[in-house]
Amino acid sequence: MLEGKAVVVTGAGRGIGRDIALMMASKGAKVVVNDLGGAADGAGADASPAEEVVNEIKAAGGEAVANFGNVAKIEDANAMYEQSMDEFGTIDVIVNNAGILRDVIFHKMTEAEWDSVIDVHLKGSFNMAQAVAKQFKMQASGCFINFTSTSGLIGNFGQANYSAAKMGIVGLSKSLALDMARFNVRSNCIAPFAWSRLIGTIPAKTEAEKARVERIKEMTPAKIAPLCVALADPTCDTTGQIFCVRNNEIFLMSQPRPIRSVHRSEGWTPETVRDHALPAMKASFFDLERSGDVFTWDPI
Question: Which domain of life does the protein's organism represent (predicted)?
Answer without folding.
Answer: Bacteria
